[in-house]
Design brief:
Blueprint: H1 2-10, H2 20-23, H3 29-36, H4 40-51, H5 57-63, H6 82-88, H7 93-100, H8 114-124
Helix pairs in contact: 7-8
Length: 136
């Protein structure tokens, strides 16, 4: 745990792990263990969502600059990243309100129950966010 704290503190430059730090502003072993307890598909989508290494516009644009990083779900020219989808996209206002009981959220997101985050991902019905149903 101590080495993770040292690494986390070393990554304080604004763009270093900027999306992950919204979920883990400090090392949280209990939360990490809870996430690791989910099935592989759920864990994978949580990992992608929390780190920003996913198929939303922001990361897709980094991988291929021809991809648009702007959210195509709303008409406000926001960059489509984890924070936008989870916290502010008007397209998900109703879903966000139903699951988190707030229309808009602010980072850090470390207070959000992981089960509710998974529920949000699944109910979003976005191909980039929903995990596959287990086949067993």
């Amino acid at each position: 745990v101590q080495s993770w704290k040292v690494l986390c503190n070393a990554l304080r430059e604004p763009e270093r792990c900027r999306q992950t730090k919204q979920w883990f502003p400090v090392v949280n072993r209990a939360k990490s263990q809870k996430i690791l307890g989910y099935n592989r598909s759920q864990w994978g989508k949580l990992n992608q969502f929390m780190t920003g290494h996913n198929h939303l516009g922001y990361h897709s644009n980094i991988v291929d600059p021809d991809n648009k990083k702007i959210c195509l779900l709303c008409d406000f020219n926001y960059v489509q990243d984890t924070q936008h989808i989870l916290a502010e996209c008007p397209y998900f206002l109703g879903l966000r309100s139903n699951i988190f009981f707030w229309p808009f959220l602010r980072p850090p997101f470390d207070h959000l129950p992981i089960g509710k985050v998974l529920e949000f991902l699944h109910q979003s019905e976005m191909t980039a966010l929903v995990w596959e149903a287990s086949k067993g």
